[in-house]
Automatic annotation (TrEMBL), chain A:
<dbReference type="Pfam" id="PF25596">
    <property type="entry name" value="CPSase_L_D1"/>
</dbReference>
<dbReference type="GO" id="GO:0005737">
    <property type="term" value="C:cytoplasm"/>
</dbReference>
<dbReference type="GO" id="GO:0046872">
    <property type="term" value="F:metal ion binding"/>
</dbReference>
<dbReference type="InterPro" id="IPR058047">
    <property type="entry name" value="CPSase_preATP-grasp"/>
</dbReference>
<feature type="domain" description="ATP-grasp">
    <location>
        <begin position="125"/>
        <end position="319"/>
    </location>
</feature>
<dbReference type="InterPro" id="IPR005480">
    <property type="entry name" value="CPSase_lsu_oligo"/>
</dbReference>
<dbReference type="GO" id="GO:0004087">
    <property type="term" value="F:carbamoyl-phosphate synthase (ammonia) activity"/>
</dbReference>
<keyword id="KW-0677">Repeat</keyword>
<keyword id="KW-0479">Metal-binding</keyword>
UniProtKB/TrEMBL annotation, chain C:
<dbReference type="InterPro" id="IPR050137">
    <property type="entry name" value="PyrR_bifunctional"/>
</dbReference>
<dbReference type="GO" id="GO:0006353">
    <property type="term" value="P:DNA-templated transcription termination"/>
</dbReference>
<comment type="subunit">
    <text>Homodimer and homohexamer; in equilibrium.</text>
</comment>
<keyword id="KW-0328">Glycosyltransferase</keyword>
<dbReference type="InterPro" id="IPR000836">
    <property type="entry name" value="PRTase_dom"/>
</dbReference>
<keyword id="KW-0808">Transferase</keyword>
<keyword id="KW-0694">RNA-binding</keyword>
<dbReference type="GO" id="GO:0004845">
    <property type="term" value="F:uracil phosphoribosyltransferase activity"/>
</dbReference>
<comment type="similarity">
    <text>Belongs to the purine/pyrimidine phosphoribosyltransferase family. PyrR subfamily.</text>
</comment>
Amino acid sequence: MAEKILLIGGSANGFGRETESDSASYQMVSALLKRGCEVFLIDDNPDSFTASRTDVHVEVLDLNAENLVKVIIANGITGIVPTVGGTTAIRLAFEVQQILGDQGPKVYGLSTPVLKATQNTKYLQERLQQWHLPAVQTRLASTPGEVFDAARELEFPVVVRSIAPQGQALRMQAEDAEELDQIAEDALARSLTHQVNVDKSIRGYKEIALIVMRDFRDTNVLIGGIEDMDPVGIHSADSIAITPIQTLADPVVQTLRHTAFKIARGFDIKGLLQVRFAVNPEDDSYVVTRLVPYYDRKVSLIEGATGYPMVPVMTGLMLGDRLEKVHIPSSYAEHTAMLEPTMDHVVMRFPVFTFGELELGGIETNRRLDTIQKSVGATIGVGRSLEEALEKALRAAHFSNRIFSPDLMGELTDSQVIAQLIHPQDNRILLLLEAIRRGYTVDELAELTHIDAFFFYKLQKIMQLEIDVQEHPWDIELMKKAKYYGLSDGLIAKLWSSVYDSVRRYRWDNNVLPTYKAFEPSAGEFQESVSQFYSTFETENESERLGQNTVLIIGTGAFRLGDGAAASYVMAMVSDEYKRQGYETVLMNNNPHDLTFIPQLSDKQYFEPLEISDIMNVVEVEQPTRIVVPGNRIKLINSLKAAGLKVDVIAREKYLESTLTDPKEEILINYFFDGAELHPIVLSHQTNRQVNIETAEQVVLRDLDVPEMPFAEPGLYQFVVPKMPAPGMKLQGEMRPMPFTHVAFLDKISHVDWLRILVRFILNTSTPDDEALLDRLPEFDWPYERAVLHYQDAEFKEHMNIQVPLDNGQFAMGVTYEVE
Amino acid sequence: MAKRYLILEDGSVYEGVAFGAPATTFGEIFFHTAMTGYQEIMTNPIYHNQIVVFTMPTIGAAGINHRADEAIGPMVKGVVVREVAEVSTNRLQSMSLHEFLLRHNVPGISQVDTRALTRHLRETGSQKASIVDYPDDHAFDQLRALVLTNQEVQQTSTPRAYVNPGRGANIVVIDFGLKNGILRMLNDYDANVTVLPYTATLEEVLNLDPDGIVLSSGPGNPHDIPDEMLTLIQTLQQKVPLLGIGLGHELFALANGVQVEPMRIEHHGMNHPIREQITNQIMYATQAQGYQIVKSTIKGTDVFVTHVDLTDGSIQGLRHRNYPAFSVQFFPDTAPGPVEATQPFDDFMDMVTVRRGG
Amino acid sequence: MTKEIVDAMAMQRALTRITYEIIEKNKGINNLVIVGIKTRGVFIGKHIAERLQQLESAEIPVGELDISSYRDDQAETIAKQPLDVNIDGKRVILVDDVLYTGRTIRAALDALMDNGRPAVVNLAVLVDRGHRELPIRADFVGKNIPTSAMERIQVNVEEVDGRDSVEIE
């Protein structure tokens, strides 16, 4: 009998939960189906791309243990997969195991102890001690005297944490006895049990993550390592991250690798394990800080950066394949799964913060970074030098963010600069550049920030290059150097007080052209057929034009506030449909976690920033028949059209006035526009908490006045009216592209892929079924009586310390839905 | 910064920027795919007279630390990289890569399209190369006229015996271009090590009453070693536990009637899956291999295969059927490289212990 | 208190080493038969046979020897179980988990002789803990572990105990 495997979804997106797990689930489903398994998915996230697959049984339910048990029993589930749904799935798998015990289904890939160790730091520390591996040293104390005993033993600085605290859990750091005197009593008093944990402080250590694969026969492979530029003390997701590891010598890396293997062995991992380390730069000693036994942003980064077939391999290993025999897609060389990836490029992950957007929305924020994640997304920059990777990641992250202007840095006072060096904020890379500009020495900066001096030399180099370029307009040697180290045409234009088009033409005239290099796991040693590329300015180009009839699809880039996951869903769906329509698809994006990078969805991928100049470079290589662009990229669309290219615009909502925070309701009439005619699909109600759809109410659409249509492109649109319209009444309101969040929701609750129909209309390849469906509207056989989309915003309070109500229509990153 | 050129025997030219010493250099070129351990690689005598291309694009950030030297100073004749860190920032390191190479008169060239170069070398195999100021006819003439020496071992082996004392087993290392990692490993077992030159005679070895023999790794072609050494190995393997590493492995094979041939595509890296035949387990180890065992010549001899590289099926380990003697092609000393590769040392010291009646 | 003194990895390595030594001593694997003493000796014997097979691509027969009826410390008579492999003229490797007083091995030798006439018998044990009461010596030893007579040595094998390890109590 076929295995029945249940994937636990990740529910709403949020801080630390972008689309990486959805992307992994999608690929895992393909691998499981290929092996003849029957696949179930439980998720209530309407943006789930995996849940839009028709070959999966999808259960739309609240993600809790009770529902999971129900689904397991009702469907005779034989195995559950907790590794592609983030922390939620790990916690639920553990709970389900507690409830069902031996009667329950198999948990794939993970042993009970590792599930426990992921949730319980103390248990992890005990296990590490048992294996003679270094964990964070900690002592229990219940009197000030004992606190001091602990500090004497562990040596300053120490961190004091109250056990069972009244109110918020705090970590208080003491650098010396005086500071400890001040906090010891307080910390004890805050504890309901009058106890504290005294930890040896690891602030200032380097944060390193290693990702390993293990099979049941104890074959261990290191897939990759990531070094955070920022030291311990800033949440790892908020740090600038680099792979491969740059500043550690071989013996240190080998020790960490061996430790990661020991842990994988100790916990009997089958598949993937990520181990996080903190390394003391003073003596190269280290501690294990965390285990992440599931697919997360770091794994996704390594998968992208190395080109290693991560999901097919982890799927095979979790089901009991040996690494030597695991099935990987035929595009890879035969031994690729067993080869430890080695890189000949540098990848930088740059966090994206949203303080700017929030401030524009009139919400006050504290921009300081700490141990709680503040970033909502990330971009990557890929290059053949650290400088190039950094420049590319930086412009990918901030091309549209005015608040990130370097000019603002000039206005800081010296004491503000010092304060921000010690207490970093979201814009610290610019601050570091500013500090270098003001003449701080590398050693001073390294001392103040605990960032390895290596990075400051690199920043210094970048800054000097910018100054040189600025001082020598149209100097071709400097231009070559600038391009070599990743400066964009746009930046050079700015430095030369020119425009990007002139710089670009000048570059062309002087034959300074990008070369594209492949992502592959052997650093050139073996021939691999590769579909992923990045640009650099060297001698050999490896990317040839894909074909005569290609579509270039421009992704939506980094997650920001609002519709990040939905936008990813929309572009993935669109991309897939172009492929189905017989085009060869080329994808361009800079968000390593994006759904559009799922290998099956396109024929070729470019990991590139999405500035106009970056896109034009790819256009020149690929000479696509059409270019698909999200509607908010107006400047890009105009430039492409001006260059005589065929642009297919996917209409995207622009920011509307923030009206939703009022306790009022808006009525939304949702249309499909085929380019000539508006077809009403559904009427919905929106408040700041939710979007509601009642099937019974839809009769009202039958005799509704047709509003004026200000847009020309086919697409999904939404007419916003203040109150319920009456038949025959003239509609007063505003037409806008349907927010992507609503598009994904509409797909899910109607069981129609509206975006696929849209693509067919764009291409003039609509089917009789498509037309019949539109002609019949608003008559529609709704599968549910009622559907509700819930905005999830609780995390803002926790992560950003924001107490005022937010406009969820604009800001909410996560949504869930329910159907009746 | 001065422009310099890397030129290859086949006429290829790669432009770059000078670092290290401003000298002109010649040597056989190869690429190494390890992402860490550049210092250990540059100082490994196996790379004596060669020019190394690192596929890792950023080299030098960890600086130079003399505890990581595999010999006194760099052994390579030139270093080719994409990006070099000009300064060392690591608190435990004593100088930068640039200073190190400058001090030892070894030129480097950076900002080379090392990926293009690697992809080229992957097709052509290793060849002669030179780092020069101008890629003119004169430079190519000189390069083509260069005759690679067959005296690599003579040039890297110790001229006279020395002792690296310890309180444990009495181990004799025959030096074919020994790297420090092997001594470091033997130190970990507190072995009393005597290092003998590659010209050692049977009598000289046996006079030391060894509990075990290590045939060290080293540069060059195993066929350049005089036949007396093969005879010596044939006798010694019957008397004491024996471990061959790298060149030592190739000599162990030759001594037992197995043939050795140059590889078209050499292995220089630490990421190949190597299967231990007896347990069917996969491990990873640093490889620096230009010659390989001819598989078809094993049949009928007294050795059998213990390790295989799964990327190309090349043989990575042999063992004698009748004596406690074995050899590995890869480096089991982790300098640089994976920790799990040290197993052969454990196995060897186990044999030594058994022989000593422990 | 129980303490693990040999972990799974070290146990695997010890078996690997024994296997190589068997090849060396027998100049190959011709005519070889492995006989494991029940219960754990059988599984250890099978692991050795697996390794020989990986190396030489030849199957080595593994017999299971039940010695309960031969032990001098058993009062009641137990029916003798015949050995399931032919050992006549073979080079037999007798395998047990722990070598202690030597009485088990003596019983095993009696049982072997009742089942045929091997050419040679060699003894392989995973652990030799000393305290011999009979003139018996193992040819292949995985690990010499000096113990007090008060201590208990437990060899765990995956197939029976769910893990590979040697513990001391």
